[in-house]
Amino acid sequence: MAYVPTKKSDFDARLAPLLPDYSHAPPDAQIIELLQTNAPPTLVQTQSLQATLSETPNRIAELDSLIDSTASLLRYLTNDRNQALENQANAKKILSPCRRLPNELVTDIFIRCSLHDRDSSSLDLRAFRWTLSHVCRKWREVAIGTPEIWSNIILHFGHDPFLNGSAAFMLGVVLDRARPHDLDVFIRLKDDISTHPVCVVLLPTVRYWKSLKVYGNPDFLSPCRGFFDRLETVDVWCNDLVGPHTIISSSSTIIIHSMKIHPLPSVTLSISERCHSRIARIQVNHLEFASRGSPSSN
């Protein structure tokens, strides 16, 4: 059996102790020629081949042992490298400048974020307010404790896939986190929503509404007359009303700074006489006024 010196210089010097001093040589030309014919080996070749058969099993066992040891070393090195990477990531995370931000600044950042995401459904868990509240404990506490980012209520009845299942419960969570901040409410509807579970949860909060936009028939607001204590702006879009309808009726203690009623054929705006002087600006198109002393339409 032929051996050749192991060329340890081809390997990292730190691995030299693991390498054998000699390695098995590839078959010579005579052995290759014998493999290609049926000729018997010579006496010398026979002795060499018999030595190979007797010595090789022990040599293979030794190599297997080295392979196992090397594999164990490789696993150790791989695991240790992964642990080093994890320790590095943990150090970066702990030393992140975000951890040093005071809650007041984090709150201000969250509020500014809310100004750029005012079109998402209030019930969409992918919206920024829900995402911020699931990043870490600190952000969750700040997000839940910042009513401003929960105060924009957007509901698309009939088009919103989130207005199903536990929607009423989720809206209740949003409204609870928005207290006691003023609410900006946007509602789009086609059919009557007065008995919808989400509407049932929403209407008791009308005293906190600061602005209201309705795309559709606003009759579902009828039970709330006299409770719009904070309402300042009203914007109603609807083209399918026929006959007299009450758009909104307010108490005499509030000032509505702007009311816009967009094209509504043959619709009566009903506001008590005590409220006329409380509406600073009203813009109405194609509307008839039922009460005396009503402001003229613009």
Automatic annotation (TrEMBL):
It comes from the Eukaryota. Residues 100-155 form the F-box domain. Signal peptide: none annotated. Pfam families: F-box-like. InterPro entries: F-box-like_dom_sf, F-box_dom. This is F-box domain-containing protein. It comes from Armillaria novae-zelandiae.
